[in-house]
Write a structure and sequence with these properties.
The protein is α/β, with parallel strands linked by helices. The protein contains 16 helices and 19 strands.
């Protein structure tokens, strides 16, 4: 879908004023935030990884088998072959089984798999050039991994049920999700293994980018934050590349009533299950590297958001289900609506966020001077604590529309903060006892109690209601 077509579609949904601002932000090279400029300078490369040589020498203490699930349907043979190549390349660093659940009417996917596995069998029979017992051990590993499991489905029951068919065959310790026409970087599982050496994570995700249909040009990198629940409630920012502990994924499975947003529904429920545990948030890990290429062609959602409008309705229902099931909020306490950007949602709390969510210590907004953001919240990213929106024009949406989303933040601008009443009372009590608290000390007290800070895009409009 061309940029012109996207613009026309946006215009029909949101009107002239919003569209003008959207176009102006795309064309602006000056009044952007730091991360937007970083994304604009991005030049992806399918096989390049600056740390690969060093990581390859790592001696892993933990051994895992990784299952990669791929539901396929009438896949372009060239795209399918590239996907297969990208997965089998992971065997340099890990034991991998690829499970393809094929719901195609034709046999073109099956024929590609048969031809491909034939070549793999031939490679597996090649003796390893090692003496004695080491040779036998290496040969045994070559015979088993990479392993491709293919299942021809009797009927196409939809993406969730098709993926469940692949999930039932998975024997790995961790399970990853991959679309049938996308590609993993050649060292994706190397980075996953390195992260698993650091801790016993149950949900891991990486950054990603998009590519053209020929996998020749890479663009629109998605640089993600560490786990951020409220941002996740706004959008499935986790998306690709997702790896989950097998027990957790098999417990949850995929729900067909959320087809089109089945991965989003899965991630939300997995996060909910983990957050119910003590220290569960520490089981979620972000790998700040682009490990996944999301292929854009005319029929893909990545290229044409309008092609799957039903998916965004399913995503909305998934957020609503999370709010009811895991946050125990009724319809009168939290309502979900679409924003001007497809796939992004707004949660409205009633009567206000503090009463609906007592774990929120404070909410904040942006500080704007002369039409630009001069003070804003911060969250942790690869570069450290990165101030959000600084330098951005007030009318712009920011990188990945974050300026228009409710998100959890690490620090807040002093000039635009509204505290929960319980903290205002606590701070007043401490100060009447002779201790004058600085703004930084107030933030430390709230963080020490385990509460969170929220950036709210309509802060200035809602602050009177909150107070």
């Amino acid at each position: 879908m061309s940029n012109l077509s996207k613009t026309i579609s946006y215009l029909k949904r949101n009107g002239i004023k919003s569209t003008c601002y959207e176009v102006a932000e795309r064309l602006d090279k000056i009044h952007l935030e730091k991360i937007q400029k970083k994304a604009a300078a991005y030049k992806g490369n399918r096989y390049f990884c600056e740390e690969k040589a060093g990581l390859n020498k790592a001696r892993f203490q933990k051994a895992f088998v990784f299952s990669i699930l791929v539901p396929a349907y009438e896949t372009n043979p060239i795209h399918l072959k590239e996907m297969l190549d990208s997965v089998t390349a992971q065997s340099e660093f890990a034991k991998v089984e690829l499970i393809v659940a094929d719901a195609s009417k034709s046999d073109k996917v099956e024929q590609v798999i048969k031809a491909y596995t034939g070549r793999l069998e031939e490679a597996k029979e090649t003796p390893a050039k090692l003496p004695g017992r080491k040779k036998e051990k290496k040969t045994e590993e070559i015979r088993k991994y990479p392993l491709i499991k293919y299942i021809r489905l009797k009927e196409n029951k939809g993406i969730s049920e098709n993926t469940n068919a692949a999930l039932a065959l998975a024997t790995g310790d961790y399970i990853g999700l991959l679309d049938h026409d996308d590609v993993l970087l050649s060292d994706a599982l190397l980075h996953v293994r390195c992260k698993l050496e650091e801790g016993e994570y149950e949900l891991l995700y990486s950054d990603e980018d998009k590519s053209d249909g020929e996998m020749a040009h890479f663009f629109e990198p998605h640089f993600k934050p560490d786990f951020n629940l409220d941002y996740l409630l706004s959008n499935n920012y986790i998306c690709h590349f997702l790896v989950m502990k097998a027990e957790l994924m098999k417990k949850l499975g995929f729900r067909r009533e959320y087809d089109g947003a089945q991965d989003y529904d899965l991630v939300l429920r997995a996060a909910g299950e983990l957050l119910l545990r003590e220290g569960g948030k520490d089981k979620i890990a972000h790998i700040p590297k682009v490990l996944y290429h999301w292929r854009c062609h005319e029929s893909s959602t990545a290229s044409n958001p309008e092609s799957k409008r039903y998916a965004y309705e399913a995503g909305k229902r998934a957020v609503e289900d999370f709010l009811r099931t895991y946050m125990k909020l009724g319809k009168e306490q939290a309502q979900v609506s679409h924003t001007s950007h497809l796939g992004f949602y707004k949660v409205t709390y009633s009567p206000n966020v503090f009463q609906a969510r007592p774990e929120v210590a404070a909410v904040c907004g942006r500080v704007i001077q002369k039409g630009k953001v001069t003070g804003g919240p911060a969250w942790h990213m690869e570069e450290g604590k990165l101030p959000l929106f600084t330098g951005l024009k007030a009318a712009y949406g920011g990188y990945m529309h974050r300026a228009e989303m409710i998100i959890q933040v690490d620090e807040m601008p002093k000039q635009a903060v509204c505290w929960n009443k319980k903290y205002r009372k606590l701070f007043k009590k401490l100060e009447t006892e002779g201790k004058r608290l600085s703004f930084q000390e107030k933030q430390q007290i709230a963080r020490g109690k385990g509460d969170i800070f929220l950036y709210v895009p309509d802060f200035w409009q809602s602050v009177n209601q909150i107070k």
